[in-house]
Amino acid sequence: MVNMAIKYQASLVAVLGQPVAENPTGVMQEAAFAACGLNWRYLNIEVPPAQLQAAIAAIRVLGFRGINLTIPHKVSVIPFLDELSSEARLIGAVNTVRRDGPRLIGENTDGKGFLRGLRQDAATDPKGKRVFLLGAGGAARAIATELILAGIAHLTIVNRGLERGQTLTAHLTANTQADVTFQPWDGTCVIPSDADILVNATSIGLYPDGKAMPDISLAAAKSDLLVCDAVFNPAVTPLLALAKDRGLPVLDGLSMLVYQGVIGFEMWTGVKAPESVMKEALAKALSQA
Ligand code: NDP
User: Fold this and answer.
1) pLDDT tens, residue by residue, 175-209
2) Are strands 103-107 and 96-100 parallel, antiparallel or unpaired?
3) What residue ranges of the chain have pLDDT lower than 70?
4) pLDDT score at 15
């Protein structure tokens, strides 16, 4: 007996990048689709930079409901989209595209994912807080922008490369009301006693260099400094291990990764995301990697 009500045409979403074979986002999205009974598929599609424009044209023709962008396409995709959210424009990068009829709209959920983790997993409202941010790359831009929009009192950006750090600081100062200071990373960076939140948004500690530790000192830090890491592989980085040893609260990079996916899922499907299913699927996939 054939059930004629079954719909055989799946809705499609994808991540475009190069490389994409190791990207675990699809595992949590597919787990979420299954848990919600949605006939959706998430594909990892390798796209070389020279083919990005053609790939976006294909996304339109094939009716994809949304995409994620990863290295190296987060900035170069912008000219091929119809519109950007104000946050994506401020960040200058897109990691998620949603469809509004025929229009492709660029969003950035990296910083929003971090913020949601801060609130939900670390029970911390960033409003009025003083933040030390290590790094000035893509993740740092997204995190800094969302923290500023959430009303932090002060942001110190610490970066090894002077130009990248100064450019980000100048950009945020010119385009927001924020109080932002740049501090060159010259020797050991001492986290001062008035900092409320420390975020590592560099790639220090990322697999396969999972023993690397940012050159910082927590000796002067206050006893409830919240230490956050954007690095999610390994989940417990040397920085988070040090913070835990000192009894400080921590927030890992898995939290940011899960919530950026949660926000993307909800943008694409309009359905409330099954957060715990997504978190479990991702943790399992990474533990098997
Ligand atoms: P980028 O390449 O854009 O930026 C890298 C940053 O790390 C730069 O500020 C760079 O400084 C700094 N850095 C790298 N190596 C060193 C070092 N040895 N000493 C000092 N600084 C260093 O990368 P992204 O911003 O895209 O990613 C950064 C991290 O965030 C990665 O580990 C990535 O996996 C993670 N991430 C996590 C997400 C999540 O959902 N959890 C989402 C996105 C990213 P300089 O300018 O001096 O080169």
Assistant:
1) 999 999 999 999 999 999 999 999 999 999 988 88
2) antiparallel
3) 1-6
4) 98
Q: Give the C-alpha separation, 246 to 232, whole Å.
A: 21
Q: Provide the total of helices (H) and of strands (E) in the chain, helices listed first.
A: 9, 14
Q: How far is Cα 248 from Cα 241, in angstroms, rounded to an integer?
A: 10
Write down the pLDDT at residue 89: 95
1 CA to centre of ligand 1 in angstroms: 55
Number of other residues whose CB lies within 10 A of the CB of residue 127:
10
Ligand 1 atom nearest the C-alpha of 141 is: 25
Span from the CA of 88 to the centroid of ligand 1 (angstroms): 18
Instruction: Quote the CA–CA distance of 283 and 254 in Å, as a whole number.
Output: 8
Tell how far the Cα of 201 is from the centroid of ligand 1, in angstroms.
5
Mark whether 74 is an active-site residue: yes
Render pLDDT for 98-111 as a digit per residue (tens, 0 to 9): 999 999 999 999 99
The pair of three-digit structure tokens given for residue 228, joined into one six-digit string:
């956050």
Query: How far is C-alpha 145 from the chain's CA centre?
Result: 12
One-letter amino acid at 198 equals L
104: tokens are 């492709």
DSSP codes of every residue in 12-37: EEEEEESS-TT--HHHHHHHHHHHTT
Q: Which atom of ligand 1 is nearest to the CA of 71?
A: 26
pLDDT, position 287:
86
**Mutate which of 28, 160, 233 for ligand 1 pocket (most atoms within 8 A of beta carbon):** 160
Burial class (CB in 10 A: 0-12, 13-18, 19+), 86: exposed
